[in-house]
Amino acid sequence: MKTILHKAATRGHANFGWLNSYHTFSFGQYNNSERVHFGALRVLNDDTVSAGMGFGKHPHDNMEIVSIPLSGDLHHQDSTGRNEIIREHDVQIMSAGSGIAHSEMNANKDKEVKFLQIWVFPKIKNITPRYEQKSFLPKDRLNQILNVVAPDNSEAIFINQDAWFSLGNFSKDFTTEYQIKKPGNGVYVFVLNGNVIINNQVLETRDGLGIWETESLNINASTDAEILLIDIPMQLS
Fold first, then answer.
1. How far does Cα 39 stand from its chain's mean position?
2. Using one digit for the tens of pLDDT, what is the confidence trace for 29-82?
3. Residue 173 backbone zone (phi > 0: left; psi -120 to 50: alpha; other: beta)
4. 107 — phi, psi (to 5°)?
5. In the predicted model, what is the mean pLDDT of the chain?
6. Which pairs with CB-CB distance under 8 Å and at least 24 residues apart come from 52-58?
7. With contact defined as beta carbons under 8 Å apart, do 151 and 202 qualify?
8. How many Cβ atoms sit within 10 Å of the Cβ of residue 4?
9. What is the mean pLDDT of the segment spanning 158-175?
10. Domains in the chain: ranges and CATH
């Protein structure tokens, strides 16, 4: 088993006033040759956007882009004519494929929106751009691991990669095991809230831990805790 630990305080940081963003991996002006990606996981940004502000229309191609609002709502528009509100407890994916332009704005005029923006290298390049979103309620992941993004689960939203995203809301002292979905995959654990112990490694809020060359993870919640698991190919095709 191999691991890499990214403590919350070691992340890249950019504050533009309207946007306060923490970067687990190199992004924008944050360049760290030792933190470019974890397998096919390229970007994990922890963003806070001021009321009424956001990202104007900009292009992407050949990237699977997952947005997870943690509080507040996002207004998504794109060049296919899509016009959607992504709300807290939703998970959204945009397969940029052969090329798409989109904007993401804070849909609220009176409060911040906090969300994760996650980029994954695709399995197949230059597909027709696609979009999907679905709501996943916290009660459905209480003391269990809920799969929310997958290539093979009709209850989750589809991703163009052999990758599985799962969320868990755990009570203090809850213990469980996670089985890695595909040989050769690793898992990136991101702690949204609370403290957990993963394979004997203590993690706190917003810490990240990459684990590979193992078949499973042992998870113990030291406090009430919320985590995101990203089960991802370690080799880029």
1. 14
2. 999 999 999 999 999 999 999 999 888 888 999 999 999 999 999 999 988 888
3. left
4. -75, -10
5. 96
6. 52/105, 52/106, 52/108, 52/109, 53/18, 53/19, 53/105, 53/106, 54/18, 54/103, 54/104, 54/105, 54/106, 55/103, 55/104, 55/105, 56/103, 57/101, 57/102, 57/103, 58/101, 58/102, 58/103
7. no
8. 14
9. 98
10. 11-135 (2.60.120.10), 138-233 (2.60.120.10)
Q: What is the pLDDT of residues 183-228, one digit of tens each?
A: 999 999 999 999 999 999 999 999 999 999 999 999 999 999 999 9
Alpha-carbon span 124 to 15, nearest angstrom: 34
Residue with tokens 């407890």: 89
Q: How far apart are CA 156 and CA 179, in angstroms?
A: 17
The two three-digit tokens of residue 205, written as one number: 């809020």
Q: What is the Cα–Cα distance from 178 to 165, expressed in whole angstroms?
A: 12
Longest dimension (CA), the chain: 48
Per-residue burial over 58-80, b if 16 or more Cβ lie within 10 Å, else e, is eebebbbbbbbbbebbbbbebee
Other Cβ atoms within 10 Å of 152 Cβ, number: 12
Residue 142 is classified by DSSP as B
Position 236 scores a pLDDT of 84
